[in-house]
Amino acid sequence: KYGDGNIMVWGCFTWSGIGNLARIESVMTAEGYIDVLCENLKESLLKLGLENNLP
To answer: What InterPro entries does the annotation carry (predicted)?
Structure first.
């Protein structure tokens, strides 16, 4: 009745607004975390007008 399922997400927010929200489908590893950042961080910075903070 009250399943013990869970969901893991990655997201970011700044004073400028809310960035991407990504659902994590599997166990998080260091390599997986880097993949999540590569897929979502740059897009979030661009969306929030913070592209000057890109390396």
So the answer is: RNaseH_sf (IPR036397)
Q: Are 19 and 47 in contact (CB under 8 A)?
A: yes
| Concatenated DSSP letters of 1-55 | -------EEEEEEETTEEEEEEEE-S---HHHHHHHHHHHHHHHHHHTT-GGG--
Half-sphere exposure at residue 44, Cβ-oriented, CA atoms within 13 angstroms:
19
End-to-end CA distance of the chain: 48
User: Is 0.85 surpassed by the pTM of this model?
Assistant: no
